[in-house]
Protein: Short-chain dehydrogenase
Organism: Dictyobacter vulcani
Amino acid sequence: MPAVLPFEQRYGPWALVTGAASGLGKECTNQLAARQLNILAVDVNAEKLQEQVLFLQQAYNVQARALVVDLSDPTFLTEVKQATSNLEIGLVANIAGLSSVGPLLDVALETLQRQIMINCLAPLKLSHHFGRLMRERGHGGIIFFSSASALQGTALVTNYAATKAYNLILAEGLWDELRGAGIDVLGFAPGATNTPGFHHAQPHYKEIPMPYMEAGPTITEAINALGTTPSKIAGKSNRAAAFLTSRLLPRKQAIKIFGDNMRKLYPQHTP
């Protein structure tokens, strides 16, 4: 049996993390830098991104670069290729995501289309490009961030949940295609997490008995799961809830339960 490479050799020397300026993406750059990977931090928020890059350089003594791009721009991959032409990207963490809360027909079509571009097309493009380079080298890793909402139709975040289901299924299929090529792929599904993105929609999270995780343990689970399984749900409580709704309950009932909880969570967005 071949020896398992140390983390920094298996997934380094550079990691590309999208959504790196805040929330789970920011935490991911912290934990990967702590493991001595150099970081290419990707986000649309230039000011916050530069602050995070400086922090990584000072706190972890790694190389860190900021790449300000809009993942909904159809040409963004050209900028990424230029920025990484002299870098060996050994890990891609597709964390950036765009969500909106409200009935699907009340959300602007432009917003729904932008969600698909950021949540689906951007991870596909990044993983296709860097996955090919990893395959040539014989090692690397790709993480697709999904969502617990992706496990069934979820009212008020209908399109977002659908985009995250795409990420989960894409990750699992790619895991099987690349598992013999030395490349680890993971579809990771967090539940409700204490991040600015979650709080932006002003959830009434005390109104329902829902699991609620911090960003640190969530990212730690994702990193530890890479290379061990094709997909994982974050947190024991989230996994228990997923088992109940996906294995024990009829799908119709599971969808209704999630929808009822979403209406309690976001009463201000409920007709």
Q: What stands out?
A: The first helix runs from residue 7 to 11. The chain has a mean pLDDT of 93. The domain at 7-269 is CATH 3.40.50.720 (Rossmann fold). The chain has one domain: 7-269.
